[in-house]
Amino acid sequence: MRSHVRIAVVVATSLGLSLAGLVWAQTPWTAPGPEKSKKSPIPSSPKVVQQGQKVAQVNCVSCHGKSGKGDGAAAVALNPKPADWTSKKVQEESDGEIFWKITTGRGAMPSWRHLPESDRWALVQYIRTLKK
Predict the structure, then answer these.
(1) What is the DSSP string of 47-62?
(2) Which residues fall within 8 angstroms of residue 99, CB to CB, at 6 or more apart?
(3) Distance of alpha carbon 111 from its chain centroid, rounded?
C-alpha cells in the first residue's frame, strides 16, 4: 500500500510541475517599465563582450547552448524552453529588460542576482553580439 501512495505522490508532483511549466509558458514575461528603460552603465567594448561570453560559458550554456539558441543539454527537460538569444524576440528586448530577466529569473530560469552587476551587464552585451 505504501508504494502505491509513493507512486501517486510522484505522479501528482510531476503533473503539478508540468502544469506549472505550462502556465509559465503561456504567461508573457515582461520587465516592469522602469527596468525596461535601464541603460548599461558599462560602455560596450570587445573586452566587455568577452567578459560576457565567459559568464555565459560558465553559467548559461547548459540551458541556452554554446551559440545561445536555447538548445543546451538541459533544455530538453525544461518547460518553457530557454530563450533563443539569437531570435528577433530577444534582440528586440531592451538592454534593461534582458538585464532584469537575468537578475530575477523565472521558473526554470534561476536568478543570477548573485553574479556581480558588471557580469550581468557584460552578458547583455554578449547576447547583443548573437543577433542573426
Answers:
(1) HHHHHHHHHHHHHTHH
(2) 35, 38, 40, 120, 121, 124
(3) 9
